[in-house]
Amino acid sequence: MKKIICLIILFFAGFTIASAQQPWSQRMAATAMKLWPDTSGRWTYEQGVMLKGIEGVWMQTGDKKYFKYIQNYMDRLIADDGTIKGYKKEDFSLDNIMCGRLAMLLYNVTEKPKYHKAAVLLRDQLKDQPRNTEGGFWHKNKYTSQMWLDGLYMAEPFYAEYAYSFHEDTDYNDIAKQFILIEQHARDPKTGLLYHAWDQSRAEKWADPKTGLSRNVWGRADGWYAMALVDVLDKFPAGNPNRAKLLAILNRLAIAIQKYQDSKTGLWYQVMDKANETGNYPEASASCMFVYALAKGAREGYLPASYLAIAKKGYQGILDKFITTDANGQVNLNGTVSVGGLGGKPYRDGSYKYYLSEKVVQNDPKGIGAFIQASVEIERLTNLSAGKGKIVTVDSYFNDEHRKDITGRTVSYHYKWDEMTNNGFSTFGHIFNNFGVKTEILYDAPTVQNLSKSNIYIIVDPDIPKENPNTKYIEEPHIKAISEWVHAGGVLVVLNNDTGNAEFKHLNNLMLKFGIQFNEDSRNHVEGTKFEQGAIYIPEGNEIFKTAKKVYIKEISTLKVSPPAASALTDKNDVIIAVAKYGKGTVFAVGDPWFYNEYTDGRKLPYDFQNFEAANDLVKWLIEQIPTK
Hints:
Layout: H1 2-21, H2 24-35, H3 45-61, H4 64-75, H5 100-110, H6 113-128, E1 146-148, H7 149-166, H8 171-186, E2 197-199, H9 219-233, H10 242-259, H11 284-300, H12 307-322, E3 323-325, E4 331-333, E5 336-337, H13 352-357, E6 360-361, H14 365-379, E7 391-395, E8 402-404, E9 410-412, H15 426-434, E10 438-442, H16 448-451, E11 456-460, H17 476-487, E12 491-495, H18 505-511, E13 516-518, E14 535-537, E15 550-552, E16 559-561, E17 565-571, E18 574-582, E19 585-590, H19 611-625
Parallel strand pairs: 7-10, 7-11, 11-12, 12-19
Antiparallel strand pairs: 1-2, 3-4, 5-6, 8-9, 13-16, 14-15, 17-18, 18-19
Helix pairs in contact: 2-3, 2-14, 3-4, 3-14, 5-6, 5-7, 7-8, 7-9, 8-10, 9-10, 9-11, 11-12, 11-14, 15-19
């Protein structure tokens, strides 16, 4: 009996140690998924913030359970016809738009029509949303003429994602207008911070009779605004002149955020500019939002890199002040104010006393969501310096497939960085970005000049006529340009396909330069879900794959190698992966597109396959092959 008790104690001790070693984002995601099972869905912005955090954890781990949680949660709310349980357009509440970002995620990944229909429903609300005379969205139908900072986060990132996915290019000007307008009216020139809300009509008791502004700077309101800016910039076109205006707004706000960070704790206060007044306190959700915005802004290049230190200090303050672990090993977030608003019944007058009167609670969903998002951003900084300043470019000249999307527009697709379907490279691109490498696409024929801008160049599955009637083959000028670029130090990645699904003759003319030939064969045929038929085991000591031990590669073209090439992975006497050193450069080749989402984002494969880990291994190795100058 004593032995059994000891074993039980050791088991749970081991479980606690293992969970404690997980990143904070995963530990808090476990708390969220326990507190709010995917059967308990509600269409609220609070849950939406939490689900956006879970989305980030999925992208960081390639673990299907996170995506399935989001999908199951939303499927209880979105019907097959796109209608949304609990949603009322006539409320014209911007809060109700926020969860549309999860509908966009699910559509972009699965392309199921119901998610698109739900997104269209929300976009229709924005078309009819009441506006003030300057074009600013009312926060809700019942809040006449009022713009709240909260509303920028609730509506604008969805608005930008919709415009990006469905080609509504003129919407970007309207999106920018919302940020520009609220900053013009709500920014305090003394502090650089923004007041919580602006009533253009000046009718509300909380509104200053001259300016229409609320009386205080609420931390979470500025947090919503900061998060909205960095999220919108992700989808905002580089060529739109309003992008520069949004970047300027973000940079002005970041200066103020830094100024009002507590020098001792690294945190931010409930009423941001009154830290020393009686009753004020550091607040968890606002602190998490500022960490997220500053870390992401700096990582993406929207802000100077110096803000990374500010974000890291804030994050450590959050861990020290707000994070606790209970007796069951569950991680909890303390210190989130449950709500903050203006007007209504009972009336909220926006006074300093009001903001301190709201309850501070444990494990508030929007606080947890903001913490998970902040954690993901901090965790993304771990390897950021490895490939900083480097560029990986995927070819879209030899692989140049097109199709009509749901809007009827003809678009380029297949192995694209922003493509989240099974055939896309969004997971692969996310991993490159985690290592600081910028992703680009080359739509033109490769030349020494245009390749010189890239450190890594990926040719994947060149077209054959059945895929693209306008097939463009690898010809002698391309071979000369690519080989010269490799010789000078470029890293070439060639991901082909198996016989019947690939072009061999012209590609092999290029690969002959490096001692590699794709055999016109096909092995690892997989029947249905018999995934083990596609298993490849990686032996200990492999120079490229140092963590992945079992991967899934089906229908592979095997390789023939001669100097300077050598096998980097052999299975059952077949060369699966080859590597060649050519001048100062390196060539990596495998006879399968392999790193596309279907086999890296975790949604399909059993847990014992490690394609996500293999992609991380490869990216790290590729960066190491780039010559140091």
